[in-house]
């Protein structure tokens, strides 16, 4: 009876060991996949945010130039009105 119990325990131990080894291997594979995904997407997100930042900065420059042009147009409108008023 002891031999059968020992054989059963040995078989159970062997099966659990092989299953745990497979789980550990699968987990390591998942960790590697997660690290790869984090690295790939991290660099892509960084590039995306850099592009967004540059676009925003360029938009700010364009808005400044547009504001300056609007001021010049307003000043010229006033000058034209004054000149036309003097001719009447």
Give a brief outline of the structure.
This protein has 88 residues and is mainly alpha-helical.
SSE topology sketch:
Layout: H1 2-87
What do these coordinates show?
The structure is a single chain. The chain has 88 residues and is an all-alpha fold. The protein has one helix at 2-87.
Instruction: Round the Cα radius of gyration to an integer and report it.
Output: 37 Å
The geometry reads as rod-shaped
SSE series: H
Point out poorly predicted stretches. Answer: none
What's the tally of helices?
1
Structural class comes to: mainly alpha
Strand content: under 5%
Question: Could you give the distance between the termini?
Answer: 126 Å
Number of distinct beta strands: 0
- Summed over residues and divided by their number, the pLDDT gives a mean of 92
Report the major sheet. Answer: none
Helicity level: over 70%
Throw out a few tags for this protein.
single chain, mainly alpha, 1 helix, 88 residues
